[in-house]
Amino acid sequence: MFTRIAAGLLLCVLAAPAAAQQVYKCVTKAGTEYQSTPCANGEAAKTWAVEVASRSEGVIENERRLDAIRQQNSASIALRPAPTRPVYRNGGGGALLHSISQYKDPDACEAAKAERERVFRMYGSNRPYMVGRRMDDMVWSACK
């Protein structure tokens, strides 16, 4: 009997240490709040101690890894240079105009349009439907 009690006490002592934390129930006009600091008006509706289990090594290691990933992400975002766009001045008012292309590659779009025009001139007005379709598809894919 004594050995069982001693073994139980030994297991309790060897268990992971848990810290006690005080919890305060504060009732205000806005509603009920549970917090770990004393209530602002000094009157807690209820106060009790809660055992908080310690974190395991796996949890601590995961938190370290996540913190390292967050730091890498914030560093990579901060080091990225802002994209530069050409800025042109117009003739009146001094306002800045920005040239924003609606095409992936404006030169490829213009080249595709010129090729379509060349093929259409070569065939004339009596060109096959599939030739016109193929040229229009080529221009669309270059200019989208």
Distance between the termini: 85 Å
DSSP, total strands: 5
Broad structural category = alpha+beta
DSSP strand content: 15-25%
- Cα gyration radius (Å): 37 Å
**What helical percentage do the residues reach?**
40-55%
Please outline the major beta sheet: 3 strands, antiparallel
Strand order of the largest sheet: 2-1-3
- Which runs of at least 5 residues are low in confidence (pLDDT < 50)? 9-14
Mean pLDDT: 76
Number of helices: 4
Succession of helices and strands = HEEEHEEHH
* Morphology: elongated
Could you walk me through the main structural features you see in this protein, from its secondary elements to its overall organization?
A 3-stranded antiparallel sheet has the order 2-1-3, with no helix packed on it. Strands 4-5 form a two-stranded antiparallel sheet. It has helices spanning 2-14, 57-79, 106-123, 129-143, and strands at residues 19-28, 31-35, 46-52, 87-89, 96-98. Helix 3 packs antiparallel against helix 4. With 144 residues, it is of the alpha+beta class. It is 48% helix and 19% strand. Among the domains are: 17-53, no CATH class; 87-143, no CATH class. The N and C termini lie far apart (85 Å).
